[in-house]
Specification:
By secondary structure, this protein is an all-alpha fold. Helix content is 53%, strand content 0%. The chain is built from three helices and no strands. It starts with a helix and ends with a helix. The mean pLDDT is 93.
Length: 86
């Protein structure tokens, strides 16, 4: 499995488009998740997806406002956590 930052970002964007967001909502890694309609319940779905997809346990204390700001910031933190595991 490719766990590069680009792959993580792409997978999260695709998950959001297919499972969370309304049709026609574009996902850009730099857009605020709140601005595209991701609420706290949807965010937990994203975290569960990340954990299943990448075999990563995402500690709740890691879900800071800075980390959950955008797909880009969330992907970056995921990549950092995965590099710590290896």
């Amino acid at each position: 499995m490719d766990t590069s930052l680009q792959n993580i970002t792409t997978d999260i964007c695709e998950f959001l488009k297919e499972n969370i967001l309304a049709d026609g909502i574009e996902v850009n890694p730099e857009l605020s998740l709140a601005d595209i309609g991701v609420d706290s319940f949807a965010l937990m779905e994203v975290v569960l997806f990340i954990e299943r997809r990448f075999g990563l346990t995402f500690p709740l204390e890691e879900l800071t406002p800075e980390v959950i700001e955008s797909v880009g910031s969330l992907s970056l933190r995921c990549s950092e956590l995965m590099s710590q595991m290896s």
